[in-house]
Amino acid sequence: MARIDSFDGDRFDAYVAAPADGGAAPGIVVIQEIRGVNEDIRGICDRLARQGHLAIAPDMLWRQERNAVFDPDTPAGWDKAMALHEGFDEDKAVRDIASAVDWLRAQPGCSGKVGVIGYCLGGKLAFLSAARAGADAAVAYYGIGIEHVLDAIDDGFAPTLLHVAALDRFVPAEAQAALAEQARRTPALTTHIYPGAHHAFARSEGVHFHADASATAQRRTEQFLQRHLRV
């Protein structure tokens, strides 16, 4: 576990997973779903470390409740998720991600290249990080609301990969069409839409886990990170 200095003088926690060989590796900031830095998110960090990345998962909810982990699939958990989401400050969150990116770059075990991968809530934050957090590359899994922030794309927008579930009830067909059209007009943006997949299709223990879509998205993510983060 690491403690990272925030831009406004506080500190927040981050789970850390490092490659076994100890050499300089590309860094990855893994941005959680609303569920917190839970076993699934820590497992993603561990997998990335086995693949040769220095991965961290910062606590993105620390401004409301430090190290919150809960299950939104229960009635009480859903109410908590909605309350936390309502009070969530997106701009401060992106600045916290920028602090995490800077922290990673300063580590002796980091090669200097740092990417961001986000899921759901973290998917939108990953997209914004490509423009505002100094990331070298970003991957967003089923991010909600990205279609509303496409104007964040500018000349400095980092290469970004979007994984979109065709049956995602939070990302309707109109939003998917907007993302696909933006990708056609933006060389730095790649969008893949997965037929038959629902929101959270890559969460291995989730009710909507889709093995084929998850495997394809993971393969594309690995190739994307190899292309943009390996020096």
TrEMBL record:
Pfam families: DLH. Residues 12-228 form the Dienelactone hydrolase domain. InterPro entries: AB_hydrolase_fold (IPR029058), Dienelactn_hydro (IPR002925), Dienelactone_hydrolase-like (IPR051049). Keywords: Hydrolase. The keyword Electron transport does not apply. SUPFAM superfamilies: alpha/beta-Hydrolases (SSF53474). One of its GO terms (molecular function) is hydrolase activity. This is Dienelactone hydrolase family protein. It comes from Rhizorhabdus wittichii.
